[in-house]
Amino acid sequence: MIIIPAIDIRSGSVVRLTKGDYEQMEVYSADPLSVALDFQARGATHLHMVDLDGAKDGTLANFEVIAKTAGTASLFTEVGGGIRDIARLEKYLSAGVDRAILGTAAVNDSVFLEEAVKKFGDKVAVGVDAKDGYVAISGWLETTAEPGYDFCARMRDLGVKTVIYTDISRDGMLQGPNLEIYGQLSGITGLDIVASGGVSCAADVAALRQTGIAAAIIGKALYKGLLTIEEALAAAGEGI
Hints:
There is one protein chain. The chain has helices spanning 32-41, 52-57, 63-72, 86-94, 104-108, 110-120, 148-157, 179-185, 202-211, 220-223, 229-236, and strands at residues 2-10, 13-18, 21-29, 46-51, 76-80, 99-102, 124-131, 134-137, 142-147, 162-167, 192-196, 215-218. By secondary structure, the chain is α/β, with parallel strands linked by helices. It has an 8-stranded parallel beta barrel, surrounded by 7 helices. Strand 10, helix 8 and strand 11 (192-196) form a beta-alpha-beta unit.
């Protein structure tokens, strides 16, 4: 299982939200690149970046800092937040981003999603943010009527290869991931599931590995010092 440390950006700084609430935000660093390079030095091979401003209002407020980080660090970098048209998708991929994550756009604009997958293949992933089991959009501010599992299966049928699934109730809470849903999602043949939300310790990582998912994103546990990259990699068996 691959470990993917997370860098969420708002107004150019590295922050973490609790349950996706923009009013519950902690700032950890004003220099995302230095954070990414530290992850890299500790053995990380991947990086997950989210433009929280973009996710909320659809702007490219943090594009420059994201492009600088992706272009400088030697990490497989995936980016999400506000990518809602082909031009923006191409801009990120041209800037050195390895994989672009579609969230709200994947829910609201099936034509765009299908065009993106057809044109860029596995360079496009879909972020599924679930609140009480249902897909949430617009920076987690709105909840749809579609169950997260059903949405993931539908994405697979459309040709999507990777889904990042976030259980908002666990995000930033450090209370453990939703192992039940990840066990269910891992059964969707032909779809790589990346878990996001709730990891607090090496035991959580090991438990996620047992569900059969492809990767796990870790955020607040790293910033709070509850888990190191080295410990996470060991628990995930990365490289084995």
